[in-house]
Amino acid sequence: MKRRFARALSRAYTAVEVMMGITLLSIGASAVIAMQRGAIQANLDARKMDMANSIAREWIERLRRDSAMWTLPSPLSPSGNNYASAKLLSTYLQYGSATTVTAWSYPDVYLATASIPDGVSPAFYILGRDLMPADITGTTTRPSAAIFCVNIRLNWLVVNELIRAEVRVFWRRDLYLDPNNQYTVDWCTAANASAITGDVGHYHFVYAATAVRKNPVQ
């Protein structure tokens, strides 16, 4: 009796018990993997959101800096006008017109080139570096390096005096690959400035706004 009881205690696990154990382990492991993926994606989204906010603030300052070139008319030169010297403002908002501009624009008037490497770009790398045209343009063999794209929208608050300037920074959600294969072709383009409006299913957006006016230097 004792020998039979000892053999019962020392017997190995059955195949059914092993399979049940493997099943429970697999369920637990899949839950942990899913949680890890979610945590990694959340950290990446948070980092991109922080960078997008920094880019938006930077572009707000660029618009303010651009307005510093707009110094006329002034009390000393009431008939003068150098609004065109503020290229970002004058390219997308006509002086002397009360027309309200509602479309988003692709601000590439100061775009960096090989001869002007420190120019102002509407596209940015993952670490917030302005990209030159060759890095923005993607091909079937070399994807675009652009991670963030910038649009601006300008409207007169007080015609010829005060401008409402809006900045929109957007980037692709998660691992989104659209039908036009935008991972390998241009996606940060002038055409997309209006095409992606409200497309929150495929893009994240950050918005910033300010008011700019001509430089009061006399």
Ends apart, CA distance between termini:
111 Å
Structural category = alpha+beta
Mean pLDDT: 82
Number of domains: 1
- How many β strands by DSSP? 4
Helical residue percent band: 25-40%
Radius of gyration, in Å, reads 28 Å
| Biggest beta-sheet profile | 4 strands, antiparallel
Detail the poorly predicted runs: none
Silhouette: elongated
Number of helices: 5
**Order of SSEs:** HHHEHEEHE
Strand content: 15-25%
Describe this structure in words.
By secondary structure, the protein is an alpha+beta fold. It has one domain. It has helices at residues 2-9, 15-67, 87-92, 133-136, 192-195; strands spanning 123-124, 148-158, 162-172, 203-213. Strands 1-2-3-4 form a 4-stranded antiparallel sheet, covered by helices on one side. A hairpin with a 3-residue loop joins strand 2 (148-158) and strand 3 (162-172). The longest helix is centred in the N-terminal third of the chain and has 53 residues, at 15-67. The mean pLDDT is 82.
Describe the secondary structure blueprint for this structure.
Layout: H1 2-9, H2 15-67, H3 87-92, E1 123-124, H4 133-136, E2 148-158, E3 162-172, H5 192-195, E4 203-213
Antiparallel strand pairs: 1-2, 2-3, 3-4
Please describe the structure with a list of short key phrases separated by commas or semicolons.
single chain; 218 residues; alpha+beta; four-stranded antiparallel β-sheet; 5 helices; elongated
